[in-house]
Amino acid sequence: MTSIIRHMKQIESRLILGDCTKELVTIKDNSVNLIFTSPPYADSRSQTYGGVSPDKYVEWFLPITKELLRVLKPDGTFVLNIKEKVVNGERHTYVIDLIQAMREQGWLWTEEFIWHKKNSYPGKWPNRFRDSWERLLQFNKTRKFNMYQEEVMVPMGEWANRRLKNLSETDKVRDPSRVGSGFGKKISNWIGREKAYPTNVLHMATETRNKSHSAVFPEDLPEWFIKLFTKQGDWVLDPFMGSGTTIRVAQNMKRNGIGIEILPEYFQLAQKDIMARANSQLKQPVLLEKKGKYETTKPKRRN
Ligand SMILES: C[S@@+](CC[C@H](N)C(=O)[O-])C[C@H]1O[C@@H](n2cnc3c(N)ncnc32)[C@H](O)[C@@H]1O
Fold it and tell me: What is 2-166+198-290's CATH topology?
């Protein structure tokens, strides 16, 4: 079943109840600007939401990434939130193996962001410390992808005041990178600026508000990537929608969304929430329940 919730100037949220291994075929080639998702964990025990054995993870995921490669626009981006588990006292290599397999499938592994969970509480394990970060792997189809860097700039803050007060001679000229990347830094360029570009480490608290789904990520996470990689009216896809965080944030940011969720209880949670927000944005949002693919229905005229 698919529901289409249409609101605000033709923006719509298309929610699909089903298995993304089957439902992704209903999405047109080269039609999505950003794919942002957190798939079910590799887990040898749990069947909570389709836990997949770590040894079978790559084999399970590759047909899905093949479809994602087809539906992503050439200048679009795929961001995958994932973290390897510890199995038999070692970090399993399924994430590293997946990156390699996706490169062979045609993806470019363009960047890796770290989500630092800044509110993790301490714990004690015999041979490691509290896991307090996750990967956000960025993949692209081409080297020329859309990126709106100014949208995620951060205040310069205290660092600038301290660092820019005492400039050395090196700070006034371009200091070439010591790793030979060909890039360099010229610290004096930042005098008088109020904002700087962020790093690839995102410090965000984990979500504690939504208790209805055990693996919800915070709204700040998709929001940051939606700002960075899309404009209003673009299309955002989450093939493992869960409680609908990505699609809800996309909706708030006036982006179209497509979310796929296999479990009816999570699908309904997402549908209820997104419909409620659409209601608050528009007096008469349109909910269309339909089985077929992409036919469009004109929203009803408001009186
Ligand atoms: C890690 S959770 C995603 C949570 C989501 N980011 C949120 O904020 O609520 C993964 C979700 O994928 C769903 N799922 C598992 N296998 C699926 C499949 N084959 N197709 C669609 N959804 C699936 C699970 O039911 C679960 O809700």
Answer: Rossmann fold (3.40.50)
